[in-house]
Amino acid sequence: MNESPRYRLTELLACVAASLLEDGSSAFVGTGFPIVAAMLAQRTHAPGLLIIFEAGGIGPQVPALPISVGDSRTYWRASAASSMHDVMSASQAGYVDYGFLGGAAMDRYGNVNTTVIGDWHHPRSRLPGSGGGCDVGSLVWRTIYLMRKQSTRTFVDQLDFLTTPGYLSGPGARERAGLPSGSGPYRVITQLGMYGFDEQTRRMKLLSLHPGVTVEQVQEASQFEIPVADALTVSPEPSDEQLRILRQIDPQGMVIGK
Amino acid sequence: MSDPVEFLGELIGWHDPDENRQWVRENKPRQMIDKRTTVSAAVREYVKPGSLLAIGGFGHIRIPMALIYEIIRQQVRDLTMIGKTAVHDIDLLIGGGCVSRVEVAYAFGHELRGLSACGRRAVESGRVQVTGEISNAGYQWRFLAAAMGVPFMPVRTMLGTETLTHSSARVIDDPWSGKPLCLLPACYPDVTLFHVHRCDKYGNAQIDGILVEDFELARASRRLIITTEKLVDHEEIERQPWRTAIPFYLPDAVIEVPFGAHPTEMPTQYYFDEEHIAHWMEVSKTDAGTRAYLDEYVFGVPDFEAYLEKIGGQERRKQLERLMDLRPKAEGGTA
Prior knowledge:
The structure holds 2 protein chains of 2 kinds. Chain A is of the alpha/beta class. Chain A is 23% helix and 22% strand. Chain A has 2 domains: 1-96, Glutaconate Coenzyme A-transferase, CATH 3.40.1080; 102-235, Glutaconate Coenzyme A-transferase. An 8-stranded mixed β-sheet of chain A has the order 2-1-5-10-11-12-13-14, with helices on both faces. In chain A, a hairpin with a 5-residue loop joins strand 6 and strand 7 (112-113).
């Protein structure tokens, strides 16, 4: 895309992601980019956003960018500093609206690999594994993914390993497997655009393009075919106010500068 | 109905619940006994070659570093590690040649800081074997089952994934709803290491901040070694017993180790030593660099106190205390 000098691509993505989190909803937030987006939402349109961290932080006013999802900053001025059993159980019981994750590779049904590249027994590259990712993708109502490097290497036909469930093999597959009914991937945000999942086929489709990006670029950066929504939109550019807050949240550019 | 599935993960840490009850009956005294000892004696007594080892805290938070360095110093071999967001601890233990196997929920990464060169090199070369996959919630619910003395915990996570088929879980149909359900086998680590804020000589331990999964893990583990920032009188525990996360009949050994989580974070006390962690991540990119680091900070010092002097002692601690304190100046803080 054509990056405007007024803002960085990462700042645009943080704003697009933040806009999905409604005031009064609850969100389970993963390390890095998802934290930045959730903090931005909390400081703009969603002051009542309930942020939950997997290690037990519940409802913090996150003061500065946490380095870890267990960092003491994840329960700064929080309602509770609890435990993983508590917050994972809350997700399983239906209290968590959104899960906010990153991912290494994804297929057309929103299934994600963060475990290995190559064969599991003899991996070409060993990745960290599920962490809380598989739990979030299994248990929250709607999972949002932030993937900054969409390409034919990350949007793939066949995952090397299915770590975290999306819609598995298609319509009804999550429920057949025993995952909570009505849960699943909701949005995917990449450097090119934002995607949702078709109600009938459960396949990924393009909902909006970031400024300056074309449908052809989106398709070229994927092994699988990506249908385009009838009402294709263009993602709104960050406002000056959003940019100011983002630079406050991450002054060293630990996430935004990457 | 659940589909038939082949499970590839090896079952580790499981005991028949009656066998474990009997073990507890014979090995865990109910009296309040003075459990104070030293780091080297506790490691020698409880961390055996081949042990299944778990470490409390989370990632780079509240990690009992004195015990980890001592395991490397004593060259305890062939450990199987519980990879429950095991990050800095497992990376060093792998670098020290102590680990043969690991069950992975999250390992080989340092969250925002990047991937772990040392741990990944060991797995990709086959030096360390991955026995199976699991998720973070999956692990702590395995500990919950063990803590409750039941053989498994029914849950709704991991279903339909290869995280499940590469784990030691099983799938059955719920007799009431008829829906497929994941059964996680109880997991009893042979030994678990914790670093806590305050503890008395009997092992009554209090943790400030999030507990992560330490409540369940402390009750699941057969042996428990506790290092504490501060050894307190039993009367101090009695004054606020509701703060006790780990009661005395669980721990086997207690050692006072101030600044004992360095370079990881001790909630409310001191923040991550990012420079030190970055240094490890850089030098551990090669076997030679890993060896040089261990020579300097582990083998090159007799104990944890000498290590603390090496990394800057009290002066460094004060800097990390200031980073922890996010209160504005007007409220008596340093930010």
